[in-house]
Structures are given as C-alpha cells and as structure tokens.
Amino acid sequence: MNASNNPVDVVAQTTRSDLKSWVSSANDGTTDFPIQNLPFGIFTNRDSQVTRVGVAIGDWIVDLAALETTRLLTIPYSAVDNDGNPKSVFRQKQLNDFVSMGPAVWRSVRSQLSALLSEDSAELRDNAQLRERAMVRQSEAVMHLPFDIPGYTDFYSSREHATNVGSMFRDPRNALMPNWLEIPIGYNGRASSVVVSGTPVRRPNGQRKEPDDARPTYGPCQRLDIELETGFFIGVGSTLGSTISAKTADEHIFGMVLLNDWSARDIQQWEYQPLGPFNSKGFATTISPWVVTMDALTPFRVEQPVQEPQPLAYLCGAERAGVDLNLEVRLKPQAAESATTIARTNFKHMYWSMAQQLAHHTSGGCNTRVGDLMGSGTVSGPESDSAGTDAGSFGSLLELTWNGQKPLDIGYGQVRRFIEDGDELTLLGWCQGDGYRVGFGACVGKILPALELAAE
Ligand code: MN
C-alpha cells in the first residue's frame, strides 16, 4: 500500500470523481454505493448467521471479517478480548469495537478498501476463490442495527419545520419560540427502540385527548406520522465534565444515516407539556442500515444558512458545516404496486448544523459515547425544493396536510391525512456527484395495526 496516511490525502484520494471499481454495478451512476462511498454496516447472510462488519459496493457487500483472514485487509490491532487476546473488530454484532479504534483506523480501512476495489487492482478482482469468501450479494443479506446505541438525542433544527409547527399550533406571526434562534433545541430520546430499516412498526396505543374531551382515552394513535430526518453517530466520545467545541465537533462524528422519527401526533399533543415528547416518540425510530462516513461526504459539504442573530461564541467556528444531501419520502399503501413520492427536500437548508448540535449538547459537560445517535430534527425545506413535482417539500404529514386539513392525494384513488395501517414509508437520501452519487440506501418501515386492547 503506497497510500499516504495523511487524513486530507486519504479523503482526497478516496473521493476522486474519476475512480471506478471492478465491481461493475458500482459504476452505473445511479447506485447509492459507488467506490467513492464505502459505507459501513452489520449483516448476516444465508451461508453464515455470524453477524459481521460489511462495506457496500454496488450490489455487493465486502465482508471485512472474511477479508481480514486473507490478510488483504490489515489493521493495527490494539483491541483485545476479556482474556487479553487480540480480537477481531469485524466479527461483531455492531460497529462499536471497530469505530472505537479511532479515525486513523477508519481511514486506514477506507483507504485499503478503495485501493482493493479500484478497477486496476487485481488481488481480489482476479481471485474467484477469494471473492467467493469475501463478497456477498446485498439481495441475499440481512442488515442489522449498525451500532449498539447508548443514547439517542433528537434535535429540532429546521427553521422551516419549526415555523410551520409554530404557525399551526401557536401564532403564525410569532411562529418561532423566543429561544429557537439561540439554542439548537433538542431532547433526550429513547435509544432502546431504535430499529433498522425493514423492521415493521406497530401503531402505538396511548393516551389521547381532544380539546373538547373531559378526560383522555387510551387506544390506538389516530394521527400517526413520520419525521424525515438524518442522524449522525458519535465516533470519538467525550468525557463527563468536558465540552466539544463547534470548531472541532466534526472530528467526533463517524458518519450519518437516514432516520425516521415516527411520531404519534395526538398522543404528543396531550403529553408534551411541560417536559416534552415521551410515548409519542418512544415506540420506534427507524434508521437506514449503512453508515455513510463523514470522509465520503466531504465533497458535498456546504456552508450552512446565514444565522441572524449570530449565535453565542460557543456555537460558532465550524466551516462548511452543512451537507448538500437530497432527501425524498415515499408512501406505498398496502395493496399498491408502487410507492408515491410525497416529499422532496435537501438537508443543506438546516439552520443548526451537526457541529452546533454537538457543541450545545456537551456545553454543560454532558459526556458522549461511541455509538450515540443524534437526530437532526424534521427536515423541511422551502417550497421551491419540490417545484414542478407533485410532492411537497416538508418532512412530515403534519406539515404536508397541515394537520390533516389538506388531505394529500397519493394516487390509487386514495388520500392521506396521516398514516394508515399497512402503509409502507421509505426515506431516501443521496449526494449528487459528477457522474455518481453517494447514497444512503433506503430507510423503510411498514405500519402494523395497533395491539388490540384487552376487554374491560
Ligand atoms: Mn424528531
């Protein structure tokens, strides 16, 4: 390997737009997983139920645990098991062990894989026996949750979303709360119910109370919704009592996923004051299985929107803190043959950046751990994002139907105010490069009917 270990060189070398792979499906311009991407995930397949780390390339997964045994992939081991013996960080149920080894190891692995998969590299390309061991078709694999997630925090960082919600439930003239332009608002979510794409989601039962009801009732959520979000995973933790500056926050982030923060609006409306959402959010959060590294996203970084007033000093200093990331939401009713796109927007509109979220989160001394998940908050953009299409540019049905007042035509002679049983919701996301795109794969969840209540 003659590649430089300098991080800037590794990023530049592995994201070059003219790179091609000998894996032909990686080169078609439409795949989410060209050689410039190389996202990490956890998988099993028919031949092996052992969970292990894989990297997506075109229609395939490179099995890093298998590759490691061939010596085509080497990492400087400092990881040991309880007996003090070296252990494989790739033969694991989650990415935590690998990611805990730090950015130099992430980059070394990315750099080695990029070289190994490039079109002129013969070692794996021309060795059928090796490919048989180390390459698995995505269509024959099952993806698992990528991280063991110690904590999940959800933010509220889209100005358009906060303005829409404030207009709907408070006052259109004072839609933003007075603190909104000063604080990246967030709350501590529920980590135990984060599930991987494809996991069915059961409609929650809960307390619902409409304004005119004397008392609440307990029963199935009537206003079930999505929230189109991205999430980022902590790759380098921080200790209790310390802070992370906005300027260096990106160095703590391993990568990003798509995130659907399922929301029970009727339950939320009744429960959220004074301490914030609880059961309305805690029943499920779906994430996409492939973690796209910040290195792969480097060419798509953009300046975040201008902030007025300028935030307090501890929230300033990050450059190119935004990501030009196209986002899409599709809805497929139970019996329908195909899905309808209901929303199109872009992550670049987010008012508060990931760096500012992390700086704020730790500003009082809260520690972070490898695998902590931070949700962006619902991504809603300006209406121009979906101009000329049938879709809207808002990341929730709450906004797309204006709290159910404007039903959405989804084709098949059907309309939606909120999600119905059997509906399948898919989030998609990709950064558009020159002749290729760095994509996230799909974040999918289908809604099952609520559990029947026991007879009284
Ligand atoms: Mn949310």
How would you describe this protein?
The protein folds into 2 domains: 7-144, Fumarylacetoacetase, N-terminal domain (SH3 type barrels), CATH 2.30.30; 152-448, Fumarylacetoacetase-like, C-terminal domain (Fumarylacetoacetate hydrolase, domain 2), CATH 3.90.850. The relative contact order is 0.16. The longest helix is centred in the first third of the chain and has 15 residues, at 103-117. The chain has helices spanning 7-14, 64-69, 96-99, 103-117, 122-125, 128-134, 159-169, 265-271, 279-282, 294-297, 354-362, 397-400, and strands spanning 40-45, 48-57, 60-63, 135-137, 141-144, 152-155, 186-188, 194-196, 201-202, 205-208, 217-220, 224-225, 228-234, 253-260, 263-264, 285-287, 292-293, 301-302, 322-323, 326-332, 340-346, 373-375, 408-409, 415-416, 424-432, 437-448. Strand 10 and strand 11 (217-220) form a beta hairpin. With 456 residues, it is of the alpha+beta class. The radius of gyration is 22 Å and the shape is globular. It is built from 12 helices and 26 strands. The structure holds manganese (II) ion. Manganese (II) ion binds next to loops.
Rounded to an integer, what's the Rg over CA atoms? 22 Å
Q: Can you give the mean pLDDT?
A: 95
Unreliable residue stretches: none
The general outline is globular
Q: What fraction of residues sit in β-strands?
A: 25-35%
Q: In the CATH scheme, what's the topology name of the largest domain?
A: Fumarylacetoacetate hydrolase, domain 2
The CATH architecture of the largest domain comes to Alpha-Beta Complex
Q: Share of helix among residues? A: 10-25%
Coarse structural class: alpha+beta
* Attached small molecules: manganese (II) ion
The CATH superfamily of the largest domain bears the name: Fumarylacetoacetase-like, C-terminal domain
Please identify the top-level CATH class of the largest domain.
Alpha Beta
What is the overall number of helices? 12
The structural domain count equals 2
What does the largest sheet look like? Answer: 8 strands, mixed
Gap between N and C termini: 70 Å
Total DSSP E strands: 26
